[in-house]
C-alpha cells in the first residue's frame, strides 16, 4: 500500500487538508470533536505529520515559555507555582501545546532564555512577577515575541495583561477588622518593586491613611518572623497584622506564640494566597484565596488566542475570595481599651 | 565597528572557538568559570549566537522533556510534582537547559508529545509513573530519544534508571508497629500496575505473610476514605493502616474520626511521601519523606550526562526517611487484647 498522505487523512476525516494541518498546529479555531476526528483518521491510516512539513506549514513551536527568575526551590515552597503551572497545563493540554519552563539564575541567563524562545523554541511567553517598570516588556517587544503579562501592569505595553484587583480584599479585611474593634492594624508587604505587592500596600495605605505600621518584607518566612517581632516591640503595638502572603503570616503566628501572645485574642493575623496549609493550622489562618489554577488556565487561553492573532487587551479576572477563619477575631477587652498584656 | 564574531569572543575570553560554541550548547564538560568568562566576553562585545548557527554547531534543543499522563490538577494536588519539578530545574539551571512540560490526556497525545520531542524539541526525556511493563521504554528507544527512568524498573531497558528502595521503610514501619503491640496491620496501596506501588505492596506482603488486609487504592482521597471504611467494618478489624501516600492517609484519618475512632489509640495510621501538611495535622501523621526535590536534581544530572554520551546505568539513591509522629502509637489495651470498642 502507498504511504498515506495528508489528503487521505482529510478524506477519511471528512475535512479539508488545511483543517488537518491546523489540527496538528494547535490552532484553537478547530473544534475538539473535529480535531479528534482528524487524529483518529490519522491513526487509523498510520499517517504521521512530518516535523519539518508541520513546522513549515505552521511555523509553530507548539510550546509557550515561562521563565522564572527566582531560586528553583520556590516552585515547591510557594504554593502559587504548582497551582499556576497546573492551570497553565490545563489551558494548554487540549491544544497539545507544551510549557517550556526555565529557571534563570541571572539577568543575562534570563535574556538568553527569552532569546532562544524568540528564535523558534516558543510561540509566546508568560511573564510573571512583574515589576512596576519592567525591563522585560520592551525586551520581549523588541524580540517580536507574543507575551501575556500576569498582573496589573500600569506602564504602556503592547501585550495582553491578565489582572485582578487585590485591593478589594485588602479593604474588606480592614473593614472586617475595624468592625471587630481593631484600631492598630499593621501590614507586612512583599517587595514593593513588584506590581502585586505594591497594589496591596497602596490599598492598605489608602484605607488606613498612614504608613506608620507598614513594613516591607520579602515574602520569606524569616522576614515575616522578624517584622512581626519588630511590630510587637512597639510601645503602641498593633492588635492585628495583615501579611502579603501566608508564609510570612505563618512565621508571624509562630513568633507571636513563642512570645506568649494568644492568637487571635492578643493578636489577630491574616495572610494572602491561602496556602494549602492555612485552613488546617490551629487557629486556622484567615487569608485571601487567589485561585492560581484559574489564573493559569485563563492566562494560557489568552496567550493561545494572541498567538493566533487576537488583538492584545486587558483581561480583568475576579478570582479572589476572602476566607475568614479563627486567626482574626475581636481583640481581648484589655487590648481594645488600650491596655497591654 | 564591524559586527563581532565568535573568534572575537574566543580571543577576549582566552578560549578556543569550539569552547565558545560548547558554552552555549549546554555541554557540561565546560566548567562554570569558563562558561561565565565566555558569556561575559560575548556580552561585552555584544555578540549573540545565531540560533541556526548554534543549532547546526551543536544539534541541541537545550531542553529536556517531561510528559505527564495524568490530569493537570495533579501538579498542584500531589506534592511530589512541585518538589520534583523544582529539583529538575535546580539540576538544569546551571546548564541553562529548559524543561519542556507537557500534560497528555490520551495515549495518542502522549505519543505525539514524545515524537515531537524526538524531532528536535528535546535532547532527552524523563519518564515517571513507570508501569511494571511500560510501553514507553520500547517506544522511546525506537524514537532514538535519550531517556532516564524514575523508579525501580525491572524489565530490560537501554536507559538509565534512578531508583530507591521503598521496601526498607515499609519494613521499618511494620517492625515499629509490631514493637508497639499491633498484630492486625493493613495496607492501602496505590494502583498495583505502577512500579512504586507494587514495590511497597510486595514489601508489605513479604513482611506480613498474607494479603488478607491488603486493599488496592488509586492514590486519591476518595479511595483512601472508602477502603478505610471497608477495613474498619471487618469483624476482626486492623489496629493499624499503612497507606501508599499521605492523601489517602489523611482521608482515612478523617473517616476514622467521623466514626468516633480515636487516632492513634483505636487506630494507628501512617502515610507515605510526607506531604507538606502532614507534620501539622492533629495528630501529626507518621509518614516516609521521599525528598522528591533531590530525586529531581539527580534525575536531571543523570539525563544531562547521558545526553553528553555517558553510558546508561542504574543509580541507586537513598532519599527516604521514616518520620515517626503522633498518629502511630501503641493500641489502647482493650484493642490490643482483641476486644472492640
From TrEMBL, chains A, B:
Q: Which keywords fit this entry according to its UniProt record? A: DNA-binding, Transcription, Transcription regulation
| CDD domains the UniProt entry points to | HTH_LacI (cd01392), PBP1_LacI_sugar_binding-like (cd06267)
Tell me the domain of life. Answer: Bacteria
| Keyword Transcription regulation included in the entry's annotation | yes
Task: Describe the location of the HTH lacI-type domain by residue ranges.
Answer: 4-58
A Pfam family cross-referenced in the UniProt record is: LacI
**Protein name per UniProt:** HTH-type transcriptional repressor CytR
Q: Which organism is it from?
A: Occultella aeris
Q: What is the lineage of its organism?
A: Bacteria, Bacillati, Actinomycetota, Actinomycetes, Micrococcales
